[in-house]
Amino acid sequence: MANVAAGAASPEKATPPEGDPAHTRRVSLANGRQLLERVLSLREGSIIVVTIVTALYFALETSSFFTSANFKTLLPYFAPYAIIAAGEVFVMILGEIDLSIGAMYLFTPFLFYKLSASWGIPLVPSVVIALLVCMGVGLANGFFVAVIGINSFVATLGMLFTFEGLALIISHGETKSIPGAEVTHSEVSVSHIVNGHHIVLKETVNHIGTFAKIFGAGVYSELIWALVIVIVLQIALTFTRWGLYTVAIGSNKLGAAEAGVKVNSVMIRNFVLCALTAGLVGILEAVRAGSVEPDPAGSNEILFFAIAAGVIGGTLLTGGSGTVVGALIGALFLGILRDGLILKGVNANYLLFYTGLAVLIAMTVNIYVQRARRGYSGSG
Amino acid sequence: MADPLIEHAVVGPASAPDDVLRVEHIAKRFGPVTALRDVNLHLKKGEVLGLLGDNGAGKSTLIKIISGFQKQDSGQMFLHDQPYQPKSVDDARAKGIDTVYQDLALIDELSVYHNLFLRRERLLLPLPLLDNRRMKREARAALDEIGINIPRIDVSVARLSGGQRQAIAVARTVSSASDIILLDEPLAAMGAKEGAQILDLVARLKEEGRVSIIMILHNYVHVLEACDRVSLIQDGVIALDKPTAETSVEELTDIVVNEYRRARAELHEEGAAPPA
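^ inputs. structure came back:
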């Protein structure tokens, strides 16, 4: 393709010799330009560029950024947000917002604790029941917004307070150890060679159960959950009727209804999805930490970061347009920013301040790159 | 009928043997506002019926009831002599009635072909995934067949002109294999040339004789050109029902203007009456 394009652009040199260095350079230039155009024509294009630039900055500024150890540190900074944002994007494309994700994030692990530790229900069924309750809350959100007609900001704000309050009530305000996340220790003898001598040392090895490995405590568990959920939901958004109708409702609700789209049912479904992803992340994070604290302030921060990830990733708060992959990259941007600032040794008190400024700068750059993108792209 | 409003009305027979659709005694209120009081209407096979009336006369409400978007308070409808009560827009479409609404029901953010196939999507069965390639191909064929020039069908409809948007909305209905098509102001927002294209399309459909059309129009010249028959709604009832060959722009204008003068006189009387 690139060869054809370059050839067509310079017909006077239609058949240059194969090894001509000038020709090769021109083709690679054309390739580079095409790649840039291709990236910028994506809805996620601008945030991809912004994220890469941010990562490069920290890679140059700190020696430890591009290391596998730091990659593992980075994971919990973005994978949970990517999952919640994936659900939130489906609500934001409708032109609505779901604030109750903060409450679902906080409440669900306590419900899981209650089911499993207090009532003795096995681990996996407890997870399933807890997530079904989440979906029930999402159903209620959708009902209030779509059927009764309460503004989604207000309806889900009510739900946010209600279920964060309920989390405080059922936990009695106490931190709980999450069942299934216990760490066991065993001592093994490991032989080392020191200065040519074999010596045997006892070392403590930590073990976590299969349940915990799958539900968040495994090193790559949350990353795998995030990638699978983002891929599945992006496919649902782009290549299924559900996604098509979600965009249609966000773009023209009356028109979608007149065309025969069952608006209420799609809206309710998206609120259910959103509550489900938030509840799942609540459980994953609680299992990863081994315990869960009744801290509404912390869960509210999760809520705002998830919405920020969606918006930074290119999803409009006004509805009609959005991307799940973009939200993942938006979450990655926020994660890289936080991780990079910590690596640079920024005083902890300055972290939120710098994050806020960086979000403003990123969104400004985002908008300018999007404007440039309109010049390249055929579709809006 | 002692109703003073219908006294002067020129209303033809409310049914014919070859009716595909009959509407009887339809009434619809929105809170204190009566949109339709007692509407009787029929549509013959292959006929183009022009539905006239001033703004707020209830034309769009009637269209929305027939298309299954709203439900009437009372009255009945018959489709091919069978009782017809659509449960939804989808239900009406399944029974062969499709509609182009005044607001076009187009989705700006979606591409031309996704708009054309909204609610009739082609899927890669058994997978629940959209068959975009097939929809693009069929959309291109459908647009070419009805002779509407849309250079690119993978761009969002937000980028099209008013006339092109209208054309897409009409094409969506025409390509849906319905046998009754309702067009709510298909010439709104159209240039003269684009409007002529839509009227040509209607004429071609009439020639084919497969579909019957109810069309809301405001321009009486267009009505006389494109329609076989006109029904005029005034104050929630059909005040006139005539073949276009037997009426004229003058007659239609007279009725509407008289109605306006009469209503104004009534309002004046009410205003002059002493408060009870």
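Chain B is about 35% helix and 25% strand. The first strand of chain B starts at residue 10 and ends at 11.
thumbs up if we can close this ticket
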